[in-house]
Design a protein that fits this description.
Elements (H helix, E strand, L loop, with lengths): L1 H24 L5 H4 L2 H5 L11 H8 L4 H4 L9 H16 L5 H12 L5 H11 L12 H4 L21 E6 L4 E6 L1
Antiparallel strand pairs: 1-2
Length: 180
């Protein structure tokens, strides 16, 4: 009997909780689409007597551990900021240098004791990448040899329709028609 009473209370509190949530997001089905996990975390009430945190997290489809844990705020140290400025300066001067060359220059010219892995991580975080020739650069060169198929829409009503040839030179802008 007490078990049934527990389920009824929990079900009614679930309905109250979900009706409050549905009023802000639209519907229970669009829960994942309508808001991010951080937005859904704001709906959890830690002091709610009728609905446990576990059940609230289950209804909102978020991990219970994320309810208790605050995301750490990332701060950048002054030394790291100085290195970032130097890397940005070097990359602006020479965008073809990779992380290994930048590491060498930082060690040699600026006297910094820095690891290449650290330079690579900082460049990745800053969104800096090396500019270098990508593959398939010769495709444009080979495209000049491609000619259009001129007989595509020609109705074949007699033998050897290719006897009438049309030579088009786009570079010299002249046309030559020959009939055999």
């Amino acid at each position: 009997m007490s078990m049934n009473l527990f389920f009824n209370t929990t079900t009614s509190s679930n309905n109250i909780f979900m009706s409050q949530f549905s009023a802000t997001t639209g519907s229970k089905k669009n829960l994942m689409k309508s808001s991010s996990a951080s937005d859904r975390k704001t709906f959890i009430e830690l002091g709610n007597k009728r609905l446990t945190v576990k059940r609230q997290a289950e209804l909102l489809k978020i991990n219970r551990t994320s309810v208790y844990r605050n995301t750490p705020v990332k701060t950048v140290a002054d030394e790291e900021l100085l290195i970032m400025h130097r890397i940005d300066e070097l990359h602006t001067q020479e965008p073809t240098w990779g992380y290994r060359t930048i590491t060498t220059v930082l060690r040699r010219d600026y006297g910094l004791l820095i690891n290449r892995k650290r330079v690579r991580r900082i460049m990745r975080e800053m969104g800096i990448y090396t500019l270098y020739p990508k593959p398939n650069l010769s495709k444009r060169y080979h495209a000049q040899y491609i000619r259009p198929y001129l007989l595509r829409n020609l109705a074949i009503s007699q033998p050897n329709p290719g006897a009438l040839t049309l030579h088009i030179s786009a570079y010299e802008e002249r046309f030559h028609v020959s009939v055999l």
